Amino acid sequence: MKLKNKVALVTGSSRGIGKAIALDLANEGANVIVHGPTESKELNLSFEQVKAINTRSIKIAAELSDSSAIAEMFETIKATFGRLDILVNNAATQNPSPFLEMKEEDWDHVLAVNLKAP
Q1: In terms of pTM, does the model score above 0.85?
Q2: What is the tally of helices (H) and strands (E) in the chain?
Q3: Segments of the chain assigned E as strands
Q4: In 3D, which of 22, 8, 4, 112 has the Cα closest to residue 63?
Q5: Closest among 29, 33, 27 to 3, alpha carbons compared
Q6: Tens digit of each residue's pLDDT (9 = 90 or more) over 55-105
Q7: I need a labelling partner for 21 at 20 to 30 A (CA). Which of 2, 7, 15, 78 fits?
Q8: C-beta of residue 83 within 8 angstroms of C-beta of residue 7
Q9: How far apart are CA 14 and CA 35, in angstroms?
Q10: CA torsion 8→17→92→49, rounded to 10°?
């Protein structure tokens, strides 16, 4: 329980590596914020698995390319826990289009999530 009562946000923790990190943090005693871009079965399942380990955990659905959604996410964390001790920048996105055929707004979305977002 090395992380007892620490507050951890793992972006993109509804599946894959992010989910595994969230579960490990919860097993070490951290209060985990489980994050996904939208409400989904994956987000709910990941949250339920983390919550089974640690009841102080919450889930947040927030699109990380939207700065107002990011601000709202951090306001929720502040209101719930009063602080954030650990941030795992796991969320990422990609666009399968060949680079030279990618629309500018799609490229902007990739940069917003992968480079600018927490």
Answers
A1: yes
A2: 4, 4
A3: 7-10, 31-36, 58-61, 86-88
A4: 112
A5: 29
A6: 799 999 999 999 999 999 999 999 999 999 999 999 988 888 898 898 999
A7: 78
A8: yes
A9: 6
A10: -60
